[in-house]
Amino acid sequence: MFGGFEGTNEYVTELQDTWEWKGRAKTWTQKFPANSPPATSPTLAYDARHGRVLLFAGGSGASTNLNQTWTWNGVTWTQLFPAASPSPRALNSMAYDPTIGYIVLFGGIAGDKALDDTWIWSGSTWLQIQTPYQPGGRFSSAIAFDPYLNGLILFGGYLAGDVLTNQTCFFSLL
After folding, report:
1. Residue 45: CB partners within 8 Å, gap ≥ 6?
2. pLDDT tens figures, 46-85
3. Going by CATH, does the domain composed of 36-171 fall within 2.120.10.80?
């Protein structure tokens, strides 16, 4: 886990801390790496193909959106400089799809625009793809791989105009 917010609506501080979950012990352990991404509200996903956590940096202080890519190897964060990258955004969704062996990034928000683009992480760069089904622009949604349906399930979020939705969308990248 990395970053997030602390405080009340009036006094919010963006965090820049790294934590690891120890499943068997059911405990969180704070890590103190030499390098860290900027304080953001990023998205993270475990890249099983490459054996590391991938972070795409979202919004930072003063509502600035970033498009930084970082990896966590269990010891430190390393910033990557891919040849291609999604545009700066915040509140996008990201999950690993084992059927294609890539992390998939969807949507987010840039300014007041809800984004509807889909990107995959190859291990060294981002590739924008067109999917057979386009869920529509949204941000703050949840995405996960469904092994029974063999595809990604995207749930909820906000549509253009800050309209909260409870839509469930399925799409396969095969």
Report:
1. 53, 54, 94, 95, 96, 103
2. 999 999 999 998 765 445 678 899 999 999 999 999 999 9
3. yes
